[in-house]
Automatic annotation (TrEMBL):
Family: Belongs to the 2-oxoadipate dioxygenase/decarboxylase family.
Organism: Pseudomonas trivialis
Pfam families reported for this sequence: HGLS
Essential cofactor(s): Fe(2+)
Keywords: Dioxygenase, Iron, Oxidoreductase
GO molecular function terms attached to this record: dioxygenase activity
Protein name listed in UniProt: 2-oxoadipate dioxygenase/decarboxylase
EC supergroup of this enzyme: oxidoreductase
Protein EC: 1.13.11.93
Amino acid sequence: MPTTAHVSPDEIRKGFSKAMSDMYRDEVPLYGALMELVAETNTRVLDAEPSLAQQLQRTGEIQRLDMERHGAIRLGTATELATISRLFAVMGMQPVGYYDLTPAGVPVHSTAFRAVHEQALQTSPFRVFTSLLRLELIENPDLRAFAETALAKRSIFTPGALALIEQSEADGGLNPVDADEFIRQALETFRWHHTATVTGAQYQQLSDQHRLIADVVAFKGPHINHLTPRTLDIDQVQDAMPGKGITPKAVIEGPPRRNCPILLRQTSFKALDEPIAFTDAKGSHSARFGEIEQRGVALTPKGRALYDQLLNAARDALGAFPNEGNAARYMQLMEQHFQAFPDNYGQMREQGLAYFRYFVTEQGLAARGTADQPRTLEALIAAGHIDVEPLVYEDFLPVSAAGIFQSNLGDAAQSHYAANSNQAEFEKALGRRTIDELKLYGETQQRSIDECTQALLA
Ligand code: OOG
Ligand code: NI
Protein backbone atom coordinates (compact mmCIF):
# COMPACT_ATOMS: atom_id res chain seq x y z
CA MET A 1 0.00 0.00 0.00
CA PRO A 2 1.39 3.42 -0.87
CA THR A 3 1.94 5.64 2.17
CA THR A 4 1.93 9.43 2.19
CA ALA A 5 5.48 10.68 2.27
CA HIS A 6 6.83 11.96 5.57
CA VAL A 7 7.28 15.65 6.19
CA SER A 8 10.92 16.56 6.86
CA PRO A 9 11.60 17.19 10.56
CA ASP A 10 13.06 20.57 9.53
CA GLU A 11 9.70 21.62 8.08
CA ILE A 12 7.92 20.50 11.26
CA ARG A 13 10.35 22.60 13.32
CA LYS A 14 9.77 25.58 11.06
CA GLY A 15 6.00 25.21 11.44
CA PHE A 16 6.29 24.75 15.18
CA SER A 17 8.51 27.80 15.61
CA LYS A 18 5.98 29.91 13.73
CA ALA A 19 3.06 28.53 15.76
CA MET A 20 4.94 29.20 19.00
CA SER A 21 5.76 32.75 17.97
CA ASP A 22 2.12 33.44 17.06
CA MET A 23 0.93 32.05 20.39
CA TYR A 24 3.47 34.11 22.34
CA ARG A 25 2.64 37.30 20.44
CA ASP A 26 -1.04 36.84 21.24
CA GLU A 27 -0.29 36.27 24.91
CA VAL A 28 2.54 38.77 25.45
CA PRO A 29 1.97 42.02 23.49
CA LEU A 30 5.42 43.37 24.38
CA TYR A 31 6.93 40.53 22.38
CA GLY A 32 5.21 41.90 19.27
CA ALA A 33 6.62 45.38 20.01
CA LEU A 34 10.10 43.95 20.42
CA MET A 35 9.85 42.00 17.16
CA GLU A 36 8.95 45.21 15.32
CA LEU A 37 11.85 47.09 16.89
CA VAL A 38 14.27 44.32 15.93
CA ALA A 39 12.96 44.14 12.36
CA GLU A 40 13.29 47.94 11.92
CA THR A 41 16.80 47.89 13.36
CA ASN A 42 17.89 45.00 11.16
CA THR A 43 16.64 46.76 8.02
CA ARG A 44 18.52 49.91 8.98
CA VAL A 45 21.74 48.01 9.71
CA LEU A 46 21.58 46.09 6.44
CA ASP A 47 21.07 49.35 4.52
CA ALA A 48 23.97 51.02 6.32
CA GLU A 49 26.42 48.12 6.12
CA PRO A 50 26.55 46.56 2.65
CA SER A 51 29.50 44.35 3.61
CA LEU A 52 27.50 42.78 6.43
CA ALA A 53 24.55 42.30 4.07
CA GLN A 54 26.88 40.59 1.63
CA GLN A 55 28.34 38.33 4.32
CA LEU A 56 24.88 37.24 5.48
CA GLN A 57 23.85 36.70 1.87
CA ARG A 58 26.84 34.44 1.35
CA THR A 59 26.16 32.30 4.44
CA GLY A 60 22.40 32.26 3.86
CA GLU A 61 21.73 33.81 7.27
CA ILE A 62 19.88 36.68 5.65
CA GLN A 63 17.03 34.34 4.76
CA ARG A 64 16.70 32.89 8.23
CA LEU A 65 17.11 36.18 10.12
CA ASP A 66 13.42 37.12 10.26
CA MET A 67 12.31 33.77 11.59
CA GLU A 68 15.30 33.29 13.89
CA ARG A 69 14.45 32.96 17.56
CA HIS A 70 15.08 30.90 20.66
CA GLY A 71 12.86 30.12 23.61
CA ALA A 72 13.38 28.68 27.07
CA ILE A 73 11.57 26.27 29.37
CA ARG A 74 12.25 24.85 32.83
CA LEU A 75 11.35 21.26 33.60
CA GLY A 76 10.79 19.50 36.92
CA THR A 77 11.62 15.81 36.46
CA ALA A 78 13.91 13.42 34.64
CA THR A 79 10.91 11.88 32.87
CA GLU A 80 9.81 15.29 31.57
CA LEU A 81 13.30 15.91 30.22
CA ALA A 82 13.53 12.50 28.55
CA THR A 83 10.12 12.95 26.92
CA ILE A 84 10.78 16.50 25.75
CA SER A 85 13.95 15.17 24.13
CA ARG A 86 11.80 12.73 22.13
CA LEU A 87 9.31 15.50 21.30
CA PHE A 88 12.06 17.76 19.99
CA ALA A 89 13.58 14.86 18.04
CA VAL A 90 10.38 14.69 15.95
CA MET A 91 11.33 18.23 14.82
CA GLY A 92 14.98 17.38 14.20
CA MET A 93 16.19 19.06 17.39
CA GLN A 94 18.93 17.46 19.47
CA PRO A 95 20.41 18.35 22.85
CA VAL A 96 23.59 20.36 22.26
CA GLY A 97 25.87 21.41 25.10
CA TYR A 98 25.64 21.18 28.88
CA TYR A 99 25.24 24.30 31.02
CA ASP A 100 25.63 24.26 34.79
CA LEU A 101 23.91 27.29 36.34
CA THR A 102 24.50 26.45 40.01
CA PRO A 103 27.67 28.56 40.35
CA ALA A 104 25.46 31.55 39.63
CA GLY A 105 22.92 30.55 42.25
CA VAL A 106 20.30 29.11 39.91
CA PRO A 107 19.39 25.52 40.91
CA VAL A 108 19.21 24.07 37.39
CA HIS A 109 21.34 22.52 34.72
CA SER A 110 20.50 22.81 31.06
CA THR A 111 20.99 21.97 27.41
CA ALA A 112 19.85 23.58 24.17
CA PHE A 113 17.73 21.62 21.72
CA ARG A 114 18.49 22.65 18.16
CA ALA A 115 19.17 21.46 14.63
CA VAL A 116 22.77 20.36 14.14
CA HIS A 117 23.50 20.52 10.41
CA GLU A 118 24.02 23.83 8.58
CA GLN A 119 21.38 22.95 6.00
CA ALA A 120 18.81 22.09 8.67
CA LEU A 121 19.70 25.30 10.52
CA GLN A 122 19.12 27.18 7.31
CA THR A 123 15.53 25.87 7.09
CA SER A 124 14.88 26.78 10.72
CA PRO A 125 17.41 27.79 13.39
CA PHE A 126 14.78 27.51 16.18
CA ARG A 127 16.36 26.56 19.53
CA VAL A 128 15.01 25.94 23.02
CA PHE A 129 17.17 26.45 26.11
CA THR A 130 15.88 23.68 28.35
CA SER A 131 16.61 23.55 32.07
CA LEU A 132 16.03 20.81 34.60
CA LEU A 133 15.32 21.82 38.18
CA ARG A 134 17.71 20.20 40.68
CA LEU A 135 15.37 19.23 43.48
CA GLU A 136 18.28 17.80 45.46
CA LEU A 137 19.38 21.40 46.05
CA ILE A 138 16.22 22.21 48.04
CA GLU A 139 17.50 22.12 51.60
CA ASN A 140 14.21 21.79 53.47
CA PRO A 141 13.25 18.05 53.31
CA ASP A 142 9.50 18.68 53.72
CA LEU A 143 9.47 21.23 50.94
CA ARG A 144 11.52 18.93 48.72
CA ALA A 145 9.07 16.09 49.31
CA PHE A 146 6.16 18.42 48.56
CA ALA A 147 7.77 19.53 45.31
CA GLU A 148 8.47 15.94 44.29
CA THR A 149 4.86 14.92 44.93
CA ALA A 150 3.45 17.91 43.05
CA LEU A 151 5.67 17.20 40.05
CA ALA A 152 4.93 13.46 40.09
CA LYS A 153 1.21 14.24 39.78
CA ARG A 154 1.43 16.37 36.65
CA SER A 155 1.58 15.32 33.04
CA ILE A 156 2.95 18.08 30.81
CA PHE A 157 2.25 16.36 27.47
CA THR A 158 -1.14 15.82 25.87
CA PRO A 159 -2.09 12.19 25.12
CA GLY A 160 -2.21 13.21 21.45
CA ALA A 161 1.38 14.50 21.52
CA LEU A 162 2.62 11.33 23.23
CA ALA A 163 0.86 9.15 20.66
CA LEU A 164 2.31 11.10 17.73
CA ILE A 165 5.83 10.98 19.21
CA GLU A 166 5.52 7.19 19.42
CA GLN A 167 4.10 7.01 15.92
CA SER A 168 6.92 9.12 14.53
CA GLU A 169 9.50 6.94 16.27
CA ALA A 170 7.90 3.75 14.99
CA ASP A 171 7.38 4.93 11.39
CA GLY A 172 10.44 7.14 11.06
CA GLY A 173 8.40 10.29 10.53
CA LEU A 174 4.95 11.88 10.22
CA ASN A 175 2.75 12.51 7.19
CA PRO A 176 1.53 16.09 6.55
CA VAL A 177 -1.78 15.70 8.38
CA ASP A 178 -0.16 14.12 11.43
CA ALA A 179 2.66 16.68 11.39
CA ASP A 180 0.12 19.52 11.63
CA GLU A 181 -1.65 17.76 14.45
CA PHE A 182 1.68 17.18 16.19
CA ILE A 183 2.43 20.90 16.08
CA ARG A 184 -0.96 21.69 17.64
CA GLN A 185 -0.56 19.05 20.35
CA ALA A 186 3.07 19.85 21.14
CA LEU A 187 2.26 23.55 21.50
CA GLU A 188 0.02 22.77 24.48
CA THR A 189 3.04 21.82 26.60
CA PHE A 190 4.42 25.37 26.26
CA ARG A 191 1.21 27.26 26.96
CA TRP A 192 0.74 29.65 29.88
CA HIS A 193 -1.67 28.60 32.64
CA HIS A 194 -3.64 31.17 34.58
CA THR A 195 -4.29 28.66 37.34
CA ALA A 196 -1.71 27.14 39.67
CA THR A 197 -1.83 23.63 41.12
CA VAL A 198 -0.97 24.72 44.66
CA THR A 199 -2.40 26.99 47.35
CA GLY A 200 -1.21 30.55 47.76
CA ALA A 201 0.70 29.59 50.91
CA GLN A 202 2.41 26.65 49.21
CA TYR A 203 3.40 28.90 46.32
CA GLN A 204 4.90 31.36 48.80
CA GLN A 205 6.91 28.64 50.51
CA LEU A 206 8.30 27.41 47.21
CA SER A 207 9.03 30.95 46.12
CA ASP A 208 10.80 31.75 49.40
CA GLN A 209 13.13 28.84 48.71
CA HIS A 210 13.80 30.13 45.19
CA ARG A 211 11.51 31.95 42.74
CA LEU A 212 12.50 29.51 40.06
CA ILE A 213 11.33 26.55 42.13
CA ALA A 214 7.85 28.08 42.41
CA ASP A 215 7.85 28.76 38.68
CA VAL A 216 8.44 25.09 37.93
CA VAL A 217 6.57 23.30 40.70
CA ALA A 218 3.38 25.38 41.06
CA PHE A 219 2.10 25.01 37.51
CA LYS A 220 0.61 22.41 35.18
CA GLY A 221 3.31 22.78 32.59
CA PRO A 222 6.60 24.40 31.55
CA HIS A 223 5.27 27.60 29.97
CA ILE A 224 7.65 29.09 27.44
CA ASN A 225 9.19 31.99 29.40
CA HIS A 226 10.62 34.03 26.51
CA LEU A 227 11.16 34.03 22.76
CA THR A 228 14.20 35.88 21.55
CA PRO A 229 14.62 37.44 18.12
CA ARG A 230 18.08 37.99 16.63
CA THR A 231 19.20 41.54 15.98
CA LEU A 232 22.15 42.74 13.93
CA ASP A 233 22.88 45.57 16.39
CA ILE A 234 21.98 44.94 20.01
CA ASP A 235 23.24 48.32 21.23
CA GLN A 236 20.81 50.13 18.93
CA VAL A 237 17.92 48.01 20.21
CA GLN A 238 19.00 48.39 23.85
CA ASP A 239 19.07 52.19 23.41
CA ALA A 240 15.70 52.26 21.63
CA MET A 241 13.88 50.06 24.15
CA PRO A 242 12.98 52.73 26.74
CA GLY A 243 11.37 54.80 23.97
CA LYS A 244 9.02 51.88 23.36
CA GLY A 245 8.14 51.60 27.04
CA ILE A 246 10.49 48.66 27.61
CA THR A 247 13.14 48.78 30.36
CA PRO A 248 16.14 46.58 29.60
CA LYS A 249 18.44 45.02 32.20
CA ALA A 250 21.44 47.10 33.23
CA VAL A 251 24.15 45.42 31.15
CA ILE A 252 24.33 43.52 27.90
CA GLU A 253 25.61 40.01 28.62
CA GLY A 254 28.49 38.53 26.65
CA PRO A 255 31.42 40.22 24.92
CA PRO A 256 31.61 44.01 24.46
CA ARG A 257 30.71 45.71 21.17
CA ARG A 258 33.20 44.90 18.38
CA ASN A 259 33.63 45.32 14.64
CA CYS A 260 33.70 41.53 14.27
CA PRO A 261 31.13 40.14 16.72
CA ILE A 262 32.02 36.95 18.59
CA LEU A 263 29.73 34.41 20.27
CA LEU A 264 26.59 35.99 21.64
CA ARG A 265 25.43 39.25 23.20
CA GLN A 266 22.07 39.34 24.99
CA THR A 267 19.85 41.68 26.91
CA SER A 268 16.42 41.19 28.45
CA PHE A 269 13.59 43.00 30.18
CA LYS A 270 11.55 41.84 33.11
CA ALA A 271 8.00 40.80 32.45
CA LEU A 272 5.07 42.15 34.40
CA ASP A 273 3.35 40.27 37.16
CA GLU A 274 0.53 38.20 35.72
CA PRO A 275 -2.65 37.30 37.64
CA ILE A 276 -2.78 33.70 38.83
CA ALA A 277 -5.57 31.75 40.51
CA PHE A 278 -4.09 29.56 43.23
CA THR A 279 -6.27 26.66 44.38
CA ASP A 280 -7.53 28.77 47.29
CA ALA A 281 -6.87 32.42 46.44
CA LYS A 282 -5.99 34.95 43.78
CA GLY A 283 -2.43 36.16 43.38
CA SER A 284 0.20 36.81 40.77
CA HIS A 285 3.34 35.34 39.26
CA SER A 286 6.07 36.81 37.11
CA ALA A 287 7.88 34.49 34.74
CA ARG A 288 7.57 35.64 31.18
CA PHE A 289 10.07 38.14 29.89
CA GLY A 290 11.56 39.50 26.70
CA GLU A 291 15.06 39.12 25.37
CA ILE A 292 17.05 40.04 22.28
CA GLU A 293 20.37 38.76 21.09
CA GLN A 294 23.09 39.43 18.57
CA ARG A 295 25.08 36.47 17.28
CA GLY A 296 28.69 36.49 16.18
CA VAL A 297 31.33 34.02 15.07
CA ALA A 298 31.69 30.66 16.86
CA LEU A 299 34.98 30.30 18.73
CA THR A 300 37.37 27.35 18.73
CA PRO A 301 38.44 25.85 22.07
CA LYS A 302 41.41 28.24 21.96
CA GLY A 303 39.20 31.26 21.24
CA ARG A 304 36.72 30.22 23.89
CA ALA A 305 39.45 29.84 26.49
CA LEU A 306 40.59 33.38 25.70
CA TYR A 307 37.00 34.67 25.91
CA ASP A 308 36.45 33.00 29.30
CA GLN A 309 39.77 34.28 30.59
CA LEU A 310 39.03 37.89 29.58
CA LEU A 311 35.45 37.77 30.85
CA ASN A 312 36.55 36.37 34.21
CA ALA A 313 39.32 38.94 34.50
CA ALA A 314 36.88 41.80 33.84
CA ARG A 315 34.38 40.39 36.34
CA ASP A 316 37.05 39.84 38.96
CA ALA A 317 38.18 43.42 38.51
CA LEU A 318 34.58 44.59 38.98
CA GLY A 319 34.41 42.54 42.17
CA ALA A 320 30.62 42.26 42.12
CA PHE A 321 27.72 41.00 40.05
CA PRO A 322 27.09 43.57 37.26
CA ASN A 323 24.11 45.79 38.18
CA GLU A 324 22.63 49.27 37.66
CA GLY A 325 25.18 50.87 39.93
CA ASN A 326 28.34 49.46 38.37
CA ALA A 327 27.16 49.03 34.76
CA ALA A 328 29.33 51.82 33.33
CA ARG A 329 32.43 50.56 35.11
CA TYR A 330 31.67 47.00 33.98
CA MET A 331 31.43 48.06 30.33
CA GLN A 332 34.67 49.98 30.63
CA LEU A 333 36.44 46.96 32.18
CA MET A 334 35.09 44.70 29.46
CA GLU A 335 36.27 47.04 26.67
CA GLN A 336 39.66 47.23 28.31
CA HIS A 337 40.17 43.49 28.83
CA PHE A 338 38.83 42.52 25.40
CA GLN A 339 41.51 44.63 23.70
CA ALA A 340 43.46 41.38 23.92
CA PHE A 341 41.00 39.61 21.58
CA PRO A 342 41.82 40.37 17.91
CA ASP A 343 38.91 42.27 16.31
CA ASN A 344 39.60 41.13 12.79
CA TYR A 345 38.38 37.94 11.07
CA GLY A 346 41.69 37.40 9.25
CA GLN A 347 43.65 37.46 12.50
CA MET A 348 41.12 35.30 14.29
CA ARG A 349 41.47 32.73 11.52
CA GLU A 350 45.26 32.83 11.45
CA GLN A 351 45.43 32.43 15.20
CA GLY A 352 42.89 29.60 15.23
CA LEU A 353 40.45 31.50 17.46
CA ALA A 354 37.24 31.09 15.45
CA TYR A 355 35.44 28.82 12.97
CA PHE A 356 34.79 29.84 9.37
CA ARG A 357 32.94 28.68 6.28
CA TYR A 358 34.59 28.58 2.89
CA PHE A 359 32.75 29.34 -0.35
CA VAL A 360 33.86 29.00 -3.97
CA THR A 361 33.71 32.29 -5.91
CA GLU A 362 32.79 32.88 -9.56
CA GLN A 363 36.41 33.72 -10.14
CA GLY A 364 37.45 30.41 -8.61
CA LEU A 365 35.09 28.48 -10.88
CA ALA A 366 36.31 30.37 -13.93
CA ALA A 367 39.92 29.54 -13.13
CA ARG A 368 39.21 25.89 -12.45
CA GLY A 369 41.63 23.56 -14.22
CA THR A 370 43.77 26.38 -15.67
CA ALA A 371 47.52 25.98 -15.56
CA ASP A 372 48.17 28.73 -13.03
CA GLN A 373 45.30 27.78 -10.69
CA PRO A 374 46.51 27.82 -7.05
CA ARG A 375 46.52 24.35 -5.49
CA THR A 376 46.26 25.02 -1.76
CA LEU A 377 43.42 26.40 0.35
CA GLU A 378 45.45 29.39 1.51
CA ALA A 379 46.62 30.21 -2.02
CA LEU A 380 43.05 29.88 -3.36
CA ILE A 381 41.85 32.30 -0.67
CA ALA A 382 44.66 34.74 -1.44
CA ALA A 383 43.77 34.59 -5.15
CA GLY A 384 40.10 35.32 -4.43
CA HIS A 385 38.98 31.88 -5.62
CA ILE A 386 37.54 31.09 -2.21
CA ASP A 387 35.64 33.43 0.12
CA VAL A 388 35.89 33.02 3.88
CA GLU A 389 32.92 33.93 6.08
CA PRO A 390 32.46 33.64 9.86
CA LEU A 391 30.53 30.58 11.07
CA VAL A 392 27.75 31.86 13.29
CA TYR A 393 27.54 30.75 16.95
CA GLU A 394 24.35 28.71 17.44
CA ASP A 395 24.57 28.09 21.18
CA PHE A 396 24.41 29.82 24.57
CA LEU A 397 26.82 31.02 27.25
CA PRO A 398 26.48 29.90 30.87
CA VAL A 399 27.55 33.19 32.47
CA SER A 400 25.18 35.12 30.19
CA ALA A 401 22.35 32.68 30.83
CA ALA A 402 22.87 33.11 34.56
CA GLY A 403 22.66 36.89 34.13
CA ILE A 404 19.43 36.52 32.17
CA PHE A 405 17.95 34.20 34.81
CA GLN A 406 18.97 36.56 37.61
CA SER A 407 17.58 39.68 36.01
CA ASN A 408 14.21 38.01 35.68
CA LEU A 409 14.10 36.35 39.05
CA GLY A 410 15.02 39.51 40.93
CA ASP A 411 18.10 40.10 43.04
CA ALA A 412 16.50 38.57 46.12
CA ALA A 413 16.77 35.24 44.34
CA GLN A 414 20.56 35.13 44.51
CA SER A 415 21.42 31.96 46.35
CA HIS A 416 24.68 30.14 46.78
CA TYR A 417 25.12 26.52 45.88
CA ALA A 418 28.39 24.71 46.05
CA ALA A 419 29.37 24.45 42.38
CA ASN A 420 28.51 20.91 41.51
CA SER A 421 28.28 20.45 37.82
CA ASN A 422 26.81 17.04 37.10
CA GLN A 423 26.65 16.35 33.40
CA ALA A 424 26.43 12.57 33.95
CA GLU A 425 23.33 12.98 36.10
CA PHE A 426 21.78 15.32 33.53
CA GLU A 427 22.44 12.87 30.71
CA LYS A 428 21.00 10.03 32.75
CA ALA A 429 17.78 12.05 33.11
CA LEU A 430 17.86 12.99 29.43
CA GLY A 431 18.27 9.38 28.39
CA ARG A 432 21.13 10.15 26.02
CA ARG A 433 24.39 12.07 25.74
CA THR A 434 24.43 15.75 24.90
CA ILE A 435 26.29 16.71 21.74
CA ASP A 436 29.54 18.69 21.94
CA GLU A 437 28.89 21.93 20.05
CA LEU A 438 32.57 22.33 19.16
CA LYS A 439 32.45 19.07 17.24
CA LEU A 440 29.49 20.43 15.22
CA TYR A 441 31.29 23.67 14.31
CA GLY A 442 34.36 21.71 13.32
CA GLU A 443 32.27 19.47 11.07
CA THR A 444 30.49 22.35 9.36
CA GLN A 445 33.79 24.11 8.74
CA GLN A 446 35.34 20.93 7.34
CA ARG A 447 32.35 20.23 5.06
CA SER A 448 32.70 23.70 3.55
CA ILE A 449 36.42 23.13 2.92
CA ASP A 450 35.68 19.74 1.36
CA GLU A 451 33.08 21.30 -0.94
CA CYS A 452 35.59 23.89 -2.10
CA THR A 453 38.34 21.37 -2.81
CA GLN A 454 35.82 19.13 -4.53
CA ALA A 455 34.60 21.99 -6.73
CA LEU A 456 37.99 23.48 -7.56
CA LEU A 457 40.63 20.80 -7.27
CA ALA A 458 38.98 17.43 -7.89
C1 OOG B 1 16.67 30.61 30.56
C2 OOG B 1 17.68 31.71 30.63
C3 OOG B 1 18.82 31.49 29.64
C4 OOG B 1 19.57 32.52 27.44
O1 OOG B 1 19.26 33.03 26.37
O2 OOG B 1 20.74 32.48 27.84
C5 OOG B 1 18.51 31.95 28.26
C6 OOG B 1 15.53 30.77 31.52
O3 OOG B 1 15.37 31.83 32.14
O4 OOG B 1 14.78 29.79 31.65
O5 OOG B 1 17.43 31.89 27.77
NI1 NI C 1 17.21 33.31 26.23
